[in-house]
Amino acid sequence: MSRIVLVTGGARSGKSRLAEGMALAYGDPLGYVATGRAGDGEMAERIARHRQRRGSMWQTMEEPLLLKEVIVGHDGYFKAILVDCVTLWLSNLLFAHNDRGRVLDEVRELADVLPNLATPLVLVTNEVGAGIVPENALARTFRDLAGEANQILASAADEVHVAMCGLPLKLKG
């Protein structure tokens, strides 16, 4: 049985840096599951900054949809696995399937395998529900989906942390 850690926070809150530090504490080799896609120049730049900051001790696995399969398939290989980020995974799933229920089923399936992992897992997710109500239906669907997914994963996690203004706050564990 491994340790499951969920790290959340808003945009530029320091959550990725916090999560990377937590994973580094387990030693190397370290696995990094990147769920984002470089669909435009700005996103490609973000990905490049993350890669540069991590350095060579991380083995990056890029997987936008099959998160559970990648985690389970690499269980036992690394000292820890970091997923950055759950929110982009949800977005990818929502666009791929256009079915909120199916996306939540995939989140539940992921949560169900977490207790059986041998490798510590650090999941990064965004807190998107603290702002204004979005004006369009897709954005409201995504906000609600992310909130529900975060609740499911937080329930399955041993520890939950939030980053605000670059500072960590432990919520669970």
Describe the structure.
The chain has 173 residues and is α/β, with parallel strands linked by helices. It has a single domain (4-172), classed as P-loop containing nucleotide triphosphate hydrolases (Rossmann fold, 3-Layer(aba) Sandwich). It contains 6 helices and 7 strands. Strands 3-2-4-5-1-6-7 form a 7-stranded mixed beta sheet, sandwiched between helices. Strand 2 (30-34), helix 2 and strand 3 (58-62) form a beta-alpha-beta unit. Helix 4 (86-97) packs across helix 5 (100-113). The chain is globular, with a radius of gyration of 15 Å. The chain starts with a strand and ends with a strand. The relative contact order is 0.24. The mean pLDDT is 93.
Write the layout of secondary structure elements.
Layout: E1 4-9, H1 15-24, E2 30-34, H2 41-54, E3 58-62, H3 67-73, E4 80-84, H4 86-97, H5 100-113, E5 121-124, H6 137-156, E6 159-164, E7 167-172
Parallel strand pairs: 1-5, 1-6, 2-3, 2-4, 4-5
Antiparallel strand pairs: 6-7
